[in-house]
Design goal:
By secondary structure, this protein is mainly alpha-helical. Helices cover about 50% and strands about 5% of the residues. Strands 1-2 form a two-stranded antiparallel ribbon. The chain is rod-shaped and about 95 Å long.
Amino acid sequence: MASTQRSSMTSTTARSGRGERGFTLIELLVVLSLISILAAMGMVQHRNSVLKAQEATLRTDLFHMRDAIDQYFADKGKYPESLDALVTDNYLRKIPADPITGKADTWQTVPAEPDPSNPSAEPGVYNVKSGASGTGLDGTAYADY
């Protein structure tokens, strides 16, 4: 009976020793590094999703402005002198801001070919492109959208 009492005392003393009081420094470093890795992955995913949304908005805005230019040409038989003419003649409510640059005045306009029957007339705006520098997630330059 004394041997069973002695073995239970040594196991109790061993459990309440120095190693059972808290986490080791290695365990804390491993947990902190895992949390850091997961946070970094989350930030990259968030940044990419924001950029995808901006690119989708850019494509949509370009589609609507190009459609308004085509409607203007179909109605009036000439291209608008500027993008502001689309707003003035109610083809657009307002010139949208470029989602990449955040400004409405960075759009690049492409002039139409001059009219051979009236070479002195202003050619007008044939197309519109983004004035943002850089490339999208698919490798296409924003100016080529």
